[in-house]
Amino acid sequence: MEIAPLLFDLGHQTPTTRQVADLVRAGGPDALTEAMRRADAARYQEVRCRSALNSVKGMPFHWTLNPYRGCTHACHYCYARRYHTQFELGADDEFASVIFVKTNLVEVLRRELQKPSWTGEYVAIGTATDCYQPIEGHYKLTRHALETLAEFRNPAGIITKGPMVVRDKDVITDLSAHAGCTVYISVPCVDEDVWRALEPGTAPPMQRLRAVRELHDAGIRVGVLMNPIVPGISSKRSLIERTMKAIADHGAAFVGCNVMFLEGGTRDHFLQWLSSEFPHLMDGYRQLYARKYAPAAYRAEVFSVFEEMRQQFGMSSREKPTRAEAEFNMQTADRSLFDLPPV
Length: 343
Ligand code: SF4
What we know:
Elements: H1 17-27, E1 36-37, E2 43-47, E3 54-55, E4 63-65, E5 68-69, H2 93-97, E6 98-102, H3 105-114, E7 123-125, H4 136-139, H5 141-151, E8 156-160, H6 169-178, E9 181-186, H7 192-198, H8 205-217, E10 221-229, H9 237-249, E11 255-259, H10 264-277, H11 282-288, H12 296-312, H13 330-339
Parallel strand pairs: 2-6, 4-7, 7-8, 8-9, 9-10, 10-11
Antiparallel strand pairs: 1-2, 3-4, 5-6
Helix pairs in contact: 3-5, 5-6, 9-12
The structure holds iron/sulfur cluster.
The site of iron/sulfur cluster has 12 residues, from loops.
């Protein structure tokens, strides 16, 4: 599979993520002298990955694939912010402005799918950072990974906030027909003020819903995740109602939601941002987020409003598996609607 040509000459072999992390540890992000700064002011560091398929535990799927690390969508609640600290980078601005690009992802994926030990399990794409963030328009790593999965008849799911996913409806249709592929589009709230505040680098929510409509009309199984609902900002009953109505109007096959959780670098970043943008919410947050999760009673209250709206607008909470996904455990698939990451 051919990777899109480089726009700049690295002059030597692309480093691994570990080598890049060592470089940053020694000299800070400025040590990434070969990272290319693009028009969006982010810097893109090409890296070599050792594995394309990553094994995960405690999720409703066992394998994930993420072409990029860091995300210019810059959602303030993003749980993946804390992962950037694994590369010695900050969970604040650096998460959204220093992006690692796994340029050898597709060749590694092909090798892994060819292994006799690989049993063709479901692969969740875009679980750590958005696989259709703007740089995908250049590298097309997500598209080439989907083509490879289709070639090997391997079922997959895609989680994204990027309307660019419609570019790949041909290959998603192919994968859907031969193995099964569900697209989960994340639209936590359709209110434009909430969107601007919480997700400064993403496409507007209605543009994402138009992508839902386009995929649906192409015969692709697509649902919406209202992930995450952010207490005091997107948790109002009227906002959940408006969002659910818009989701129903755009042909989504199912809808799910979760309530934001906070830990590590994400917690530090979010609370700092909240204190500057919504200082009047800080007292409530100190109580609500004394721990990683909001209290069960609060989450149950949000879910009950969500459930009421879901039924009011006739939305399904679960997806029907395709024939090829029939082995996928539906009990855990249900859970996935609530536990999937906040892409
Ligand atoms: S929540 Fe998703 S889209 Fe937003 S910054 Fe994180 S990975 Fe990117």
